[in-house]
Design a protein that fits this description.
With about 300 residues, this protein is mostly helical. About 75% of the residues lie in helices and about 0% in strands. The chain has a domain of about 190 residues: MetI-like fold, CATH 1.10.3720.10. The longest helix has about 35 residues.
Length: about 300
């Protein structure tokens, strides 16, 4: 069918719709990605698992059967049983309790790093992409930060500031902020040349209003997807720093500290290292999987295909 005739047919279909269908169509279009995401069983399972992990971490003081830092040498290196569901470590501490409390620190670090990196990176990316005179300066600074290996840079910052959750958050946020900034800069360079942005500029809208209403609003989708990946990377990086002894207090219950303590006990008590390692792997895997599925659901090309199906 010729393009002109196809366009006429499409317009005729639109005119034949009942009154009020446009508002319903726009509302459904905004929610379509949400329905597409939940239509995937894999996405539902990943989301349910992550919600369960968060709830267990938040409710750790009420769910944990024992104090995670109290040692009991009388029950050291006991295997999984009805009394200690996931066994005990070399100091007699309950592994299940330490796993729950360790999740609180890992998830807190992951969420905090993501929040700081997204806010700072989005601000830098918007300024660099929209104002050409700032682009060179800001990007060269970020290139200098990205020139350092992420783990080495984080270790150097934590050592300089001292061990603690705040130091880990600052270090990892500095590592992942350039990633977000470069992403938002690339989208800003495209969006600022769109006709609706040019029209907003012509009618006298301020740069701040344009950045907020149009540029940032149209960058939310890739920003959300990138945030899911940063949460996973930050959790994994915090565990790596803890394993190397460059994170929080070495005696604090974190998944990285549990891995470090259990790696020398693999031949005698495999559960001490396998349990936190498995939890760390599954959590990061679920986050990455959810990020991939969310990216597909928010893909503009996928949205266009779903919109065409609605119009037809």
């Amino acid at each position: 069918m010729p393009a002109g005739r196809a366009g006429a047919v499409a317009r005729a279909r639109l005119r034949s719709r009942p009154r009020g269908w446009r508002a319903t169509y726009v509302r459904d279009r905004r929610r379509s990605w949400y329905r597409v995401l939940l239509s995937s069983r894999v996405a539902v399972l990943a989301l349910a698992f992550l919600i369960g992990v968060v709830l267990l971490a938040v409710l750790a003081p009420y769910v944990a059967p024992a104090d995670p830092e109290v040692a009991n040498p009388a029950v050291r290196l006991r295997g999984p049983s009805s009394e200690h569901w996931l066994g005990t470590d070399d100091l007699g501490r309950d592994v299940f309790s330490r796993l729950l409390y360790g999740g609180r620190i890992s998830l807190l670090v992951g969420a905090s790093v993501t929040a700081v990196a997204v806010v700072a990176g989005a601000a830098i990316g918007l300024l660099a992409g929209y104002f050409s005179w700032l682009d060179g300066l800001l990007m060269r600074v970020l290139d200098g930060v990205m020139a350092f290996p992420g783990v080495l840079l984080a270790i150097a910052i934590v050592v300089s500031l001292g061990p603690g959750v705040d130091s880990v958050v600052i270090a990892l946020a500095l590592v992942y902020t350039p990633v977000v900034a470069r992403l938002i800069r690339s989208t800003t360079l495209v969006i600022k040349r769109m006709p609706y942005v040019e029209a907003a500029r012509c009618v006298g809208l301020s740069n701040g209003a344009i950045l907020w209403r149009y540029v940032l609003a149209n960058s939310v989708s890739p920003l959300i997807v990138q945030a899911t990946f940063i949460v996973a990377y930050a959790i994994l990086a915090e565990a790596s720093l803890s394993f190397l002894g460059a994170s929080v207090n070495p005696e604090a219950p974190t998944w990285g500290n549990m891995l470090r303590d259990g790696q020398r006990l693999l031949s005698r008590a495999w559960w001490v290292a396998v349990v936190p390692g498995t939890m760390l792997f599954v959590t990061v895997f679920a986050l990455n999987l959810l990020g991939d599925l969310l990216r597909d659901a928010l893909d503009p090309r996928s949205q266009e295909r779903r919109e065409d199906a609605v119009v037809k």
